[in-house]
Structures are given as C-alpha cells and as structure tokens.
TrEMBL record:
GO terms for molecular function: ATP binding; metal ion binding; threonine-tRNA ligase activity; tRNA binding. Belongs to the class-II aminoacyl-tRNA synthetase family. Keywords: Aminoacyl-tRNA synthetase, ATP-binding, Coiled coil, Cytoplasm, Ligase, Metal-binding, Nucleotide-binding, Protein biosynthesis, RNA-binding, tRNA-binding, Zinc. It is found in: Cytoplasm. InterPro entries: aa-tRNA-synt_IIb, aa-tRNA-synth_II, aa-tRNA-synth_II/BPL/LPL, Anticodon-bd, Anticodon-bd_dom_sf, Beta-grasp_dom_sf, TGS, TGS-like. It comes from Brumimicrobium oceani. Its main location: cytoplasm. Gene3D superfamilies: 3.10.20.30, 3.30.54.20, Anticodon-binding domain, Bira Bifunctional Protein, Domain 2, Threonyl-trna Synthetase, Chain A, domain 2. The gene is thrS. This is Threonine--tRNA ligase. Its EC number is 6.1.1.3. Residues 112-139 form a coiled coil. Signal peptide: none annotated.
Amino acid sequence: MSIKVTLPDGTVKEVEKGTTSLDIARGISEGLARNVLAAEVNNEVIDAMRPIETDSTLKLLTWNDKEGKSTMWHSSAHLMAEALESLYPGIKLAIGPPIKSGFYYDVDFMDYNFAEKDLEKVEKKMKELAKKKSEFIREEMSKEDAIAYFKKKQDPYKLELLEDLEDGSITFYTQGEFTDLCRGPHIPHTGIIKSIKLTSIAGAYWRGDEKNKQLTRIYGITFLKNAELNEYLEKLELARQRDHRKLGKELELFTFSQTVGQGLPLWLPKGAELRLRLENFLKKVQEHRGYEQVITPHIGSKKLYETSGHYAKYGADSFQPINTPDENEEFLLKPMNCPHHCEIFKAKPHSYRELPIRYAEFGTVYRYEQSGELHGLTRVRGFTQDDAHIFCMPEQVKEEFQNVIDIVLYIFKTLDFKKFTAQISLRDQEDHSKYIGSDENWEKAENAILEAVKEKDLNTVIEYGEAAFYGPKLDFMVEDALGREWQLGTIQVDYNLPERFELEYVGADNQKHRPVMIHRAPFGSMERFVAVLLEHCAGDFPLWLSSEQYAILPISENFNEYAEKVSKVLKNSDIRGFIDDRNEKVGKKIREAEMGKTPFMLIVGEKEMETNTISVRQRGAGDLGSMPIEDFIKIINKLVEEELSHEDLNA
C-alpha cells in the first residue's frame, strides 16, 4: 500500500507505507541522506528511521535546523552516559537533555570522586564509542516492564521519572551497550558525532529541589566537523574574557557577599554610577513620552498577591511569607511591581479623558532562585526592573504597544545591539490550565500584539507556551557581539489583572469600563541588562555611559596643580574623569589608561600649563594634538550628543 508524503517545496513523493524519512532522503540523494539528523513528520520531530504509516508532510532536518542540532545533542548526551557507565560501573543516571548550546547529564557518582580533570577521559571514551556507528534503536515498553528493568538495574532516578508516565507512552532507546528511558528523537547512529568537547561540571539538585541529593551535572557539546568545534572553543574563550563577573571585578562595578546572602548583588560606587546613568537615560525618555514616576514598598500583603494570582503560581517556590506580631498579618517580599501599580490606579476615580495613564518605577523585586541556578548578575534573587504599567482603553492598546516598541528600539540602537528578534510569546495551544483569564480576553490580547508587531515590520518568531500566566507578550531576543542570544526587553498585554483588581474608568457614555493593562520593561532588569551590556561591549562602554571619560596624566608632580585646575573645569561641565598623579612615566600611565578602557587621555606638562591647553589622546584613535580645554569639552559633548541622537525624544 502506498502513501503520499509532501515535502516543504510542495513536491509529493508516493512511497510504500512504512518507508522511513531516511529512505526518502536517499531517494533524493545520498549526500542529503548523510546530512539528515531527524525528521519533522506532520509537525512532530521524530527519528529519521521511524516508519511513516499515513499520508504526511515531511521536513528533513539537518545541522542547519535548530531541531536537527537539538536531536544530535540529545543523542550526544546518551553517548556520554554510555561512556560514563562504561568507565564508572554502578553510577546512577538522572536526566540528560539537549540545551541551547550542547547538552548535559545529571549523574549520581555514588562513591566515585569525579572532577574536571576526568572530563578528558570521558571524551576519549565517547570518541571510541562513536566510531562503532551504533544505531539508536527505539522500543516501546509497558510501564510494568520499564519498572522491572530499572529495578533490576537499581536506578532510583529513572524509577521516580516512571511514576509520572502513563502506560502506553513509554519508550526506551538503545545504542551499543546502553539503554535509557527516553522519548527521543535521536540521530540514525553514533558515527555522525565527530567532534566532542565536555566543557564543565556543576552541582545540580535532583529535580531542582535543594532537599534532594546534589548530583554532578556534566556539560558538553558536539559538532559534525572539527573546524566547527574549534570555532566554538574560540568563542568560548572570548566569552570567558568578556565574562561580566570577571569584568565587573576588574572595573570595580559590583560584588557579592556570602554574609549578605547568595544572589544579592552589592553595587560598588562605579557600578552604582553606571546603573544610575542608565536609569536617568530611560527616565528622560519616559518623561518625554508621558510617564509618571511612582514608588512602591519592597513588601506587600499576602492578600495582594493572592488577588493578582502571583501567590498561587509562584508562592510555593518563592520567599516564604513574613510574619508579624499580629497573627492575622502576613507579608511577602515583592515578587512583582504590577499589583502595587494596580492599587495606585485604583486609589482614585478615573475618566476616559485621563487615559492612557503610564506609571513607571525602578522597582526592586525578590524571587527565590535555587542556589545552583544563580549566575553573577544574570540570575539573582533581588533585582530592579525598569517597570512601567500603562492603563488604557481597548482602542488605545495598539498605539501604546507600538510606542513602547519605539522605546525598546531606541535603547538597542543607542547601546549598539544591532541583531535581535521579536519573539511573540503566546499561550500553549492545548493546555490552558497554566493561565488565568477568559479565552475571549486572551484572544483580544494576542490579536492586539500580532497587529501591532505586523505594522512595525519587525523580524519576528511565534513561540507557543511562552506567555506570562496573565497575558501574551513580546520578548526581544538580542544577539550580542559573540553571537549569543539574550532575552532583554519585554512588553505584555493584560486584560486579566484589571478584572482581578476591579479597575475601572468612566467612559464617554458615562458608564464604567475596564481598562487594559500593558506591562513593559525595556531593559528587563538592571542587573541582567548591565551583565549583557558588559559582555557585549567587553567593558568598553559608549562615551556617554563611561564611568571615567578621561584620565589626566601629568608628566611630573610639578604639573599636578595644573591637572587639578583642568579637572575642575571638566567636572563643572559634567564630564567625568580622574587624575593619575602617580610618580610613573607618562608612557606607562597611557598604557594602563588604555587597558582600563578610558576613552580619552589628557597629557599635561610645561607647554600645556603655559598655554592653558591639554594634549589629547583618544583610545583607539591615537594623538589628537594640543587644544584649549574648551575645545575638548566641545568634542566630548558632540560625541555624546551623536551617541544619543537616534530619536527625537519629543516624538
């Protein structure tokens, strides 16, 4: 019996029932077949070796497809697990998924002492096993047989995973001497994996629960060619050099203290100044666009977050309630600013003539992240959001949403984030249980975002299941200088919180109506944004943002007094810098100033003092010659103006 298989270009292949995707690829060309890693059949990613039983659509997945890479990295995790079991008999395996760049496997090493130095040994074993070209064989398994298999193997983590699986939905995969509980899909055979690098190890609690045993998480990545691995390792080294934790320490921006607590950053003077400049930059933009600043407490009544729905969704995994001497009182550390802003809106009656109302706040919030998930400034327990909430009429939603997009684009251009994708995050199409609010309100909100984005002609992707629990959103996924993707700005449309808080305004018909709420945070959080910006520009900030725009370098101590005079004039013009009055040669001072990423070096000696001038060097451009101080001030102001002139703020 034959079936029809439709390819992405519309070509229809008539093949025998039970033909595999790999067979179809071979029918097109052997070269294509060698590159196939998996297949997408009727929008489901499956093994390329699985038989196709009905008329279907087919997309052959290669290394150029995200799903193709993910399948290979999933298979690589299985290959690593096989190598580990071979080298360390009796270990217990937990989970081994693909991730954005590579894969990991969580392992209970029992009585073995496993360290970074052992990774090379595992890599060598993986390469040896890969050369056997073992096929990945899929087998459906009854729950009873699956439990019996892992009981015999004495594998507690797999047995616990089986508890949540339904009979009839369980599959095993075997390659070589290794069998694992797995949904798949997998590549045709291990020989496809050519280049292997195990990158690091870390601690990870089983199922992310600190009450459970801490396992060893081994990270790795694989490629089809050695050249691709070498390119990746070069980028990895660059990333290490640009690591915001390393640069933050070198530039004296922030620190952490175990005494203060994990995940709670301390901003040092230079870091605080940097952060305040970013805040003031956005405040100026917001002021010109009709935002009003508000301030809310760091805590709120538990009832506030029960009303908003945050407690039901996140309460169990967040900081626990704060009790007071009054047994009827319970407070929470603020996890979100939006419930507080709803109460500010509710504090007095509103007319449609007042709308839209835009409340903005740099509000610090607190969320309990597992200790193993904390990472510098990118994953913390206390962070400040550049939060704002717009309360508007339904007919104003699209225009307000687009105005926020304009702010985000201005920020990205000013800070040189050139590559980004606007991710439209919608509800899971099947499972609506994770969300609050009516289907009608969700449809309105999703349509509003889709219309607004379409008119802005952004480079977009749609991701189902990534919406916030109260509404769909537009997330800006930014690619940094190393090609890594970060989620920064976000805009969300919300019909649900206004209902939960019973927010109202009086319309032109003199009747009460429900406003629509737009949540927005162009930076996302100050901590995460500073971390990403720091790594993106390697600490070489634009001039307007630099903590020290100049270094005055006296040739000898005889000219320190003149250096002080120059510094005073510059500081009176709001230009930031310092005097390096150490008893060192000026050449050394110049080199160190350049290494410290100081944009301008101002050399002063006898000639400069007599003529009331400065000799100017610009980092990366060299000697600009001698000039009056006033001319240097004009150069600085012009450069800063150019950096910030991408948009008319009165728009």
